[in-house]
Specification:
globular, 10 strands, 3 domains, 53% helix, alpha/beta, 5-stranded parallel β-sheet, 17 helices
């Protein structure tokens, strides 16, 4: 159910088609948390492996290698993870499993899980790792070219490691070596937060040029309504019972979600669970969102908690976020924050600089000293759940919710 993502799905189909025909297509999917990046990668992986047909009706048969990065992932870790996953995928397919058993010695080096690169060595220089990885892919493509259309490598959470992981350098070197060796059926795709391209550039200035960038904007109002309707249609098919939704309730789900597919899913799911008569009303949406362990709390656990608690060790920084949350996702000046908090000037300056660096607040381009929170839902979560420095919920009454939503509208 990818409402509002038709153009992106067409581009992903083209990635597979071009790569299948010897013109490898590399791409980046960038967007905020909850915008649907990982879901698109999952869709692409499903289409590439032939489990479902593509948007154009094409059927593909790629070997898929997908990994996810962590903040502590290193350059060597990126290479090793891809090598191990390639070997694992080859071992999972009937058409290639027997080949592995009969002399694919070049794959044995990837059997270890990071403790040792092979039985003889504890550490291997990154350059040797890269050499071995490219040779592994070249050899693999020679042996499985009759079985597969190519190999699709996807790296999710690619923004998580710092620039020292040199993901940009890896991407540039790996794709160039594939091209020079004539290994032209291997595509590389990355997914991450909007700072991903900047991190790639810090690692290798020209690395972003090898990718087609696919930024994911929030869904339009029309697409939000379509997503809700698709969900209810699927529920009717699965449950055998039709559930309807009142217009004002649908409007509220669409508004609260701010166009983030994951937020639509969460608020709609909780409203569906709250409903008891197969007619979702406004109060069902409100209670589902704001009750203890409701939709807003669940989104906080999934998307906001680490921004507010894990990435921030200073209470003064959290005070800045609470002051900004009073303005929802609207632009706030430094003077307004200063007036609200009465922090020392250097403390406020340090807090704002740190929050920008950690991609927790957004500075306004072209205007100095103006900032905003990334989403209204983040602001609502801060207001509802962070009146103190603990993640305990503070649930407003239905009357407070109704008044708050009136202000939001």
């Amino acid at each position: 159910m990818f409402a509002g993502r038709y153009e992106e799905l067409k581009k992903l189909d083209r990635v597979l088609y071009q790569t299948k025909n010897g013109n490898p297509h590399h791409f980046i999917i960038e967007g905020e948390r909850g915008i649907g990046k990982s879901s698109l990668l999952l869709y692409l992986d499903t289409v590439a492996s032939g489990a479902i047909t593509g948007l154009s009706g094409s059927v593909f048969n790629f070997l898929t290698v997908n990994i996810e990065l962590e903040p502590d992932t290193t350059y060597s870790g990126i290479i090793s993870n891809i090598g191990r996953k390639l070997r694992r995928e080859l071992a999972n397919h009937d058409r290639t499993r027997e080949l592995i058993k009969t002399g694919w010695d070049f794959l044995k080096k990837w059997e270890a899980f990071g403790v040792k690169y092979n039985p003889e060595e504890n550490t291997v220089p990154p350059q040797q790792l890269m050499d071995d990885l490219t040779l592994t892919f070249e050899e693999a493509m020679k042996r499985v070219s009759t079985n597969f259309d190519g190999i699709l490598i996807t790296i999710d959470e690619a923004d998580k490691p710092n620039a020292g992981a040199n993901l940009g350098e890896f991407s540039k070197l790996f794709t160039e070596r594939m091209m020079k060796s004539g290994c032209d059926h291997v595509a590389l795709g990355l997914s991450g937060l909007p700072q991903l391209t900047r991190k790639l550039r810090e690692s290798h200035e020209s690395s972003p040029r090898i990718f087609e960038n696919m930024p994911l904007p929030p869904l339009s109002s029309e697409d939000r309504y379509t997503a809700i309707d698709l969900g209810l249609a699927a529920a009717k098919e699965k449950n055998g019972v039709e559930t309807t939704i009142a217009t004002d309730a649908k409007n509220l789900v669409a508004t609260m979600s701010e166009g983030y597919p994951s937020f639509i899913q969460q608020f709609a799911y909780n409203a569906f669970e709250e409903d008891s008569d197969n007619e979702i009303q406004l109060l069902d949406v409100m209670n589902g969102a704001y009750k203890p362990n409701g939709g807003l709390h669940q989104l906080g656990v999934a998307y906001f908690h680490d921004l507010y608690f894990e990435k921030i060790s200073s209470n003064e920084y959290r005070q800045v976020l609470r002051a900004m949350a009073e303005h929802r996702d609207q632009w706030v000046t430094k003077a307004q924050i200063r007036k609200k908090l009465n922090l020392k000037e250097y403390t406020l300056a340090n807090a704002i600089a740190a929050l920008i660096t950690r991609n927790i607040i957004i500075p306004q381009v072209g205007k100095k000293g103006v900032y905003r929170l990334p989403t209204r839902s983040f602001a609502a979560w801060i207001t509802a759940f962070t009146n103190s420095d603990t993640p305990d919920s503070v649930s407003p009454t239905p009357a407070e919710i109704k008044t708050d939503n009136a202000r939001t509208e």
